[in-house]
Every structure is written in structure tokens, then in C-alpha cells.
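Subject: mismatched residue count in predicted assembly?

I count 228 residues in my input, but I want to confirm that the predicted structure covers every chain. Input:
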Amino acid sequence: QVQLVQSGAEVKKPGASVKVSCKASGYTFASYAVHWVRQAPGQGLEWLGWINAAYGNTKLSQKFQGRVALTRDTSATTAYMELSSLTSEDTAVYYCARTYTEEFDASDIWGQGTMVTVSS
Amino acid sequence: EIVLTQSPGTLSLSPGEGATLSCRASQSVSSNYLAWYQQKPGQAPRLLIYGASSRATGIPDRFSGSGSGTDFILTISRLEPEDFAVYYCQQYGSSPQMFGQGTKVEIK
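Triage response: the counts match. Full output below for your records.
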């Protein structure tokens, strides 16, 4: 079936970086975009950006420019989100989600989420 | 950026009752690119409605969306036990994509 499976929970120290993976299956990976959204404990949803799985071009929320890198490996049908210079405010569940077009489309399939904890 | 304000924050209702959730945008949402998601504890969001009024695949017809411009509504005609959850609206017509803060539908 169509699914996105994310990597496991991470615990990082302040100032470190984290890289989360999102493996797609059940559909043509390169025909869709992958978005990244995070949710701090007990809070709402926050959009980080998207990557075009075919061409690798990206668009990031201005808030995360310079700190987030979105990449993909088409042969592995996997997208990655790397967040650097972590602080306690980055503690959140990070989700990947697909859309048919990069923009102007809602996310119909979501990964299960990856908990990232930043703590000294 | 477009700010989405959802109301009420919490809705306390009984199974079988109807629910009306509101999402108001700080400026007009381009081409009604407005979605609604349901989220249960420990789970990822689930797409219910896109394009303000189109139901996603597999979504029961008790869920309906309406509205345009800056004012949007999600209606649940008769609440089933599995409908008690948090609901988020999202605008995806302009960057950055934004979500509302959520409405919790709880059992009364």
C-alpha cells in the first residue's frame, strides 16, 4: 500500500544536527513532492518546506532557511530532512507528507512521525 | 503570511450531535486552497477535505467543507465515537503554508 515510513526517534544535544529519513513505497516516488511539518509537544502544526522528488528543487519556510536542508535519493525512494544548530525549541515530532504537486495541493499521505528531542 | 484562526478552541458534544468548526484567514485564500485534517493522539494528521469542499478518498460523507475567501467551515453531521479528535485547517495557496491552531472536539 501507499506509505511513508520515517526513521526512529532521536535525542540530540543543543548545537547538534539531526537527519530524519522518510522512505516512500507503493507509488512512483518521483511523481510527487515531499513536505516536512513539525509539531512541538502539545502544540499545533508548523510547515518547514518541500522538495520536488524528481528534480530535487526545494522551497523552505523563511523561518528555517539556513538551518534546514531537504534532500532525496530517488534510487532509494527516500527523502531526508536535516536540521542544524538545534535548540530545545526544536524538540518536536517531525512528519513527512506527500503532495502531487509541490504547491497548491494538500497532503494525502503522511509518515508516522519522528520524535526529535533536544536536551543537554 | 496568512494567519488562520480556528474557533472554538474546544467543542464539547455528544455522539450523534452535529459539529460546526470555523477557520478564518487573515487574507483571502488563493483559489480556496484550504484543507482540513483530523489528528488523534499519537497519530499523524489525516486529510479530510481539500479545495475547501472536496472530500479526500475514503472520507465518510458526514464530513463536509464549505466557504470561500477568508471564511471556511468544517461540518460533521452526526458525530461518531471515532470523530472525537483535534481538527486543523491549512491554507496551501501561498507560501508559507500555514495551519490553524486547531479545534478539539471532545466528548461531553
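Chain B is about 0% helix and 50% strand. Marking this ticket as 'not a bug'.
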